[in-house]
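Crash report, auto-generated. Payload:
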Amino acid sequence: MPELPEVERGRRLARAVARGRTIVKVTCARDAIVFEGVGAARFHRALVGRLVVEVRRRGKHLWLELDRRPWPCVHFGMTGALRTPGDTPLRLASSPRQDDSGWPPRFVKLHLVFDDGGELAVVNKRRFGRIRLRTDPAREPPICDLGFDPLLDLPSPKAFAKLLAGRTAMIKPLLMDQRFAAGVGNWIADEVLYQARIDPRRPAGSLSGEEAGRLRGKLKQIIDRAVAVEAIKARLPRTWLFHRRWHRDGAERTARGERIERFTLAGRTTAWVPQVQR
DNA sequence: CTCAGTGTTCAGTG
DNA sequence: TCACTGAACACTGA
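Recovered output after restart:
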């Protein structure tokens, strides 16, 4: 569930299921990579019998606030998700089809059962995700190293312009740098730059005040919208670049008929529209 | 068989 | 320090 909107969706799901409930059963997959070598015993000790006070998110990180520390923190990598019985799993644009609606789901890394019978599962098809224990997540790495979160603490237009000033980094890699903006990934960065009409290779510090304002505005608008539709891609406006960026076959054009081009920037495929992005 | 992918991190280079 | 590139990580599906 990688980018901010999907993780926020997961937070709301987890909040609905777990807040005010006590964890009665914990099952950890045998996976030293995802758990960074921390054994199941430690997770049991930390979680069983605990009350879930709140579910928090910052950027792409999610954690449960319990009545006793430490707290479990989850990062979903490229293919992780949060599931509960009877939910509708998010369909990834890059991996269509395949029936993932069963319970228990496949690739479960952490499974929690609550005192009211509710269940929550962290699933991950691959192993780029991480599940950790932290005493004070917001004040410890990796969460304390994150930049602003566009949903929680988006800077004012003035402060945003100041963040860009003097920086020589290209604007797209900067947007995706979690120390700058927490939660922005590849498709959101491309979408924001397309809608703000800015060339992804522009040095961040070269943006005019007006361009910086436009960029900030689109960042907010696009993330707000994606969160509002629960990160369900089919509910995002049809004019968005997102829907067309992976149409590899034939003419790649936006809903407005503009030609979409692709190149690699900072190791990631970048879709953009030269005709409108300057 | 090969390649790229909603992501992050580390080594090497300038 | 900043910032870029490429590779590594792991594994599936086109």
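Post-recovery validation: Residues 209-228 of chain A form the longest helix (20 residues).
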